[in-house]
Structure formats: C-alpha cells, structure tokens
C-alpha cells in the first residue's frame, strides 16, 4: 500500500509542469525589461544580470513586479494603447512570483527564448551635436541646467528621429530637448552668457526662472532606459536654419563620490521631406499662465482643468500645421512639477463620447516621458480636449503657489505630438 502511494506521488510529481527556472524563464524577462537599467554602472541601484544577483533580490523583484512599480511605466489604463509599453503581462508576473519562491537556477546551456524587442531607437544618425563644453554639476543632489546648441543645418529640415546620449548616465536623471525658433534664438544665447559657467540654470523648462516669453517646441524627453525616438508613421518635426536646440539637463548626483564632468550628445535623423508634418503643441489654459492656477497651502487635492478646442491657440503659437480640418494625436508628453499628483488628457467628441488618451494616476516628476499612441486618434472640428491636473500641496511646510517656472511653482501642460 505504501509502495503504491509512493508510486502515485512520484507519478504526480512527474506530471507537474516543472517550476520556472532562472535560465529558461526569468533571465529572458530580466534581460528584456530590467537589465537596461539594472546593470553595473546603470541608473538603478543594483544589477540584476546574474543568477546570484537575482536570487539576492528575489522577494523584492517579485514585489516590485507584482505591484507594477517595475519596470517603470506611469501611464494607467486608457482608451488607447501605447507603443513600447514595457509592463509585464499577468502571466509574466506569475512566473516571476513563482520563481521568487524557488529561485531554481536551471541549465545555463538551455536558455529560454528572448522576448521580442520593444523597439524604439533611431535607425541611423545624420547629425550629432554635443554640449559645447563639459559641465560638472554644481549643486547636490539636483542641478537643473540648460545648454544652448546652435542648429548647424543651412536649409529647412525635418527631424524624423532623435536620441540623447548622456555623457555620464549615472548622474543624468532626465533630459528634455527643445527647439527655439530662429526669431527667438537670441534669448537663450543671452541667458547662457549671464554667468561664467556653461549653460544657464533652469528648472521646469527652457526659460529658467524667467516668465515664458515665446513659444517653444518640445522635441523629446530622455529618461533612464530611453533608446531614442523615431517619430511614428513617417512623420517629422520641421527645424529651420538659425534655430537653437536647448538641452535641459536634470543632473542628480546623490550618492556620487564626486560629480563628474558631463558632455551629453544629441543624435538626429533628418529628412528633406516627410509623409506628414508633426509638431508638439501645448494644451493648457492661458489664464493659468496669467496667474489663475492658484494652489492653496494644506490642500491634498487641488484640481485645475481646461476644456477647449485648442486649435486657435496652436495657430497663435505659430503652429506649422494647418489644423482647420482637425488633427491627429500621435503622442503625448505630460508636464507638471513636484506637487503634481494625477494627470489626465481626454478627447471629448462632438457626439459626447469621451476618449481617455492619457491617465497618469501617480505622477512622478522624475519619470516624464512621451507616450506614443499605437494608432493616431483624430480630433475633428466640434471636438474638445480636456487637460486635468490634480496637485497635492499638503506637505507640512507648504505655501500657496501658482503657475511658474520655479521649482516651488507649478505647471499643467499636455504636450501633444500632432499631425495634420
Ligand atoms: C528604466 C530603468 C529601470 C528599469 C527598466 C527597471 N528598473 Fe528597477 N529600478 C530603477 C531605479 C532607478 C530604481 C531605484 C529608484 C526607485 O525605486 O524608483 C529601481 C528600483 C528597483 C527595485 C527596488 C525598489 C522597489 O521599488 O522595489 C527593484 C526590486 C527593482 N527595481 C526591480 C526591477 C525589475 C524586476 C525590473 C524589470 C522587470 C526593473 N526593476 C526594471 C530603474 C529601472
């Protein structure tokens, strides 16, 4: 009887699918979704590129993956899907959870299949530009510095792909690139000359602590793990001779023994003509800029929202697109400062349908990235866009604040990559 029971157990065990192992199941996941940051010298605080390293962090990995904290991706569910969403599927999360309990190594000679790549990056580089001089971060932990680079092309071009290559990746937290049109090029040049160091101090954007005095065009944002952008569907952003590129660097040197000199590079893919012209256009309420975005102290849920057809505003800002028949939403880059808590962008159709384009339920100032839509969404005449920002100003030392460029002030902008 005992022999029979034992035989039954052995048979059962043989029928059980083997549990996940590091080499067959976990490593392909970590390689595809974690190791770009979790590698020695990378932006993340520890490496995850060996079995020993993964075993040492097994419970933390399971927890971070289960909760969705890792890999970092801040867009919540919406009525659209995004390109290059690195989030793990429920089945992948379950594999990680099961492996974290056993931490079985498996056979290195039988590696599991690699995950399909997320894509991204530029396919070739036509023009590289670099900060004119190296710069060593001066303030710790954070230094926000803008560098001005003259655009060297002598004919009008379209930027179809862009990348940033930080000089010292471990001390760069994020980079935002802006195009300053030729007619405003003298402003950043003058700001650059205000002190002896390269560049000028700036926090929320290319203006530093000055009031916004002309329209700027966002180009892209680099965050850790970013491989560069090829604009979707054959599109490009126009750039004219005489323009300036402003590179806003957020250095974070926390934990560094001593800050190192950085000379970040930008790479561009260019074309003379494009299938569709693209432009980043800001959706915001001009009344906010005029001081009507009051955020009282001691309030955890201050909402500012704006519902409008933004096309006349786009035209006022000198949009290169003819949006009289509507436009396509291709990508969104949301912008708030550190009191930001929740950011939303909705398309409200003339027929009362509401389409959630972007929802960032737990805004994190340090992870501002662009969300490219898998399919463009059409804004038609009669439709409206709603941008909605919720701020938390309940910290013990909070003071009332309002719209502004300083770190103690706030913003609420949905930058929309649009095409005609
Ligand atoms: C884009 C870069 C990036 C990617 C990709 C990434 N991480 Fe991280 N990870 C970080 C950074 C930066 C930190 C430290 C700061 C923080 O906690 O946000 C971190 C912290 C962690 C932590 C400790 C803190 C916590 O929240 O539990 C764990 C565990 C972790 N990562 C696991 C993973 C795993 C597993 C993956 C892949 C599924 C992954 N990470 C992908 C950048 C990344």
3D structure, described in words:
- By secondary structure, this protein is α+β, with helices and mostly antiparallel strands.
- It folds into 3 domains: 17-102, no CATH class; 127-274, Sandwich (Jelly Rolls); 278-419, Jelly Rolls.
- It is built from 8 helices and 18 strands.
- It has helices at 2-15, 22-33, 51-56, 58-66, 90-102, 186-192, 286-289, 311-316; strands at residues 127-130, 142-150, 157-165, 172-180, 200-201, 217-222, 229-230, 235-239, 244-252, 265-271, 276-283, 299-308, 327-335, 340-348, 354-360, 370-379, 384-393, 413-419.
- Strand 14 and strand 15 form a beta hairpin.
- It is globular.
- The chain binds heme C (HEC).
- The site of heme C has 20 residues, from helix 4.
Provide the helix percentage: 10-25%
Q: How much strand?
A: 25-35%
Quote the average pLDDT.
92
Looking at the structure, what is the overall shape?
Answer: globular
The CATH architecture name of the largest domain reads Sandwich
What number of domains? 3
N-to-C order of helices and strands: HHHHHEEEEHEEEEEEEHEHEEEEEE
CATH class of the largest domain: Mainly Beta
DSSP, total strands: 18
> Uncertain segments of ≥5 residues (pLDDT<50)?
8-13
Structural class: alpha+beta
Q: Number of helix segments?
A: 8
Q: What is the fold-level CATH name, i.e. the topology of the largest domain?
A: Jelly Rolls
Ligand species: heme C
Head-to-tail CA distance between termini: 78 Å
């Amino acid at each position: 009887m005992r022999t029979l029971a034992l035989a039954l157990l052995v048979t059962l065990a043989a029928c059980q699918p083997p549990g996940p192992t590091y080499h067959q199941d976990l490593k392909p996941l970590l390689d595809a979704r974690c190791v770009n940051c979790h590698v020695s010298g990378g932006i993340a605080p520890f490496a995850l590129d060996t079995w020993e390293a993964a075993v040492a962090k097994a419970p933390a990995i399971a927890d971070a993956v289960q909760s969705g904290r890792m890999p970092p991706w801040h867009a919540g569910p919406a009525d659209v899907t995004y390109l290059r969403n690195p989030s793990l599927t429920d089945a992948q999360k379950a594999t990680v959870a099961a492996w974290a309990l056993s931490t079985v190594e498996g056979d290195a000679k039988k590696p599991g299949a690699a995950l399909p790549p997320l894509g991204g990056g530029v396919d070739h580089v036509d023009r590289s530009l670099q900060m004119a001089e190296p710069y060593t971060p001066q303030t710790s932990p954070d230094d926000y510095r803008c560098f001005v680079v003259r655009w060297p092309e002598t004919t009008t071009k379209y930027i179809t792909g862009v990348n940033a290559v930080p000089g010292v990746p471990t001390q760069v937290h994020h980079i935002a690139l802006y195009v300053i049109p030729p007619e405003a090029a003298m402003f950043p040049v003058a700001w650059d000359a205000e002190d002896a160091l390269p560049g000028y101090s700036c926090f929320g954007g290319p203006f530093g602590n000055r009031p916004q005095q002309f329209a700027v065009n966002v180009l892209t944002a680099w965050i850790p793990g970013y491989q560069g952008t090829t604009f979707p569907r054959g599109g490009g952003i126009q750039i004219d001779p005489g323009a300036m590129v402003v590179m806003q660097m957020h250095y974070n040197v926390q934990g560094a023994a001593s800050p190192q000199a950085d000379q970040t590079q930008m790479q561009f893919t260019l074309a003379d003509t494009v299938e569709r012209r693209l432009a980043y256009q800001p959706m915001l309420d001009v009344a906010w800029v005029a001081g009507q975005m009051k955020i009282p102290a001691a309030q955890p849920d201050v909402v500012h929202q704006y519902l409008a057809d933004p096309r006349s505003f786009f035209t006022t800002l000198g949009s290169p697109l003819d949006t009289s028949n509507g436009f396509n939403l291709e990508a969104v880059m949301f912008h708030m400062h550190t009191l930001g808590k929740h950011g939303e962008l909705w398309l409200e159709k003339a027929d009362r349908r509401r389409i959630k384009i972007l929802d960032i339920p737990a805004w994190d100032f340090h992870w501002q990235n662009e969300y490219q839509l898998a399919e463009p969404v059409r804004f038609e005449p009669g439709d409206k866009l709603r941008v909605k920002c919720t701020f938390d100003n309940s910290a013990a030392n909070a003071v009332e604040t309002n719209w502004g460029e300083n770190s103690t002030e706030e913003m609420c902008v949905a930058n929309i990559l649009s095409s005609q």
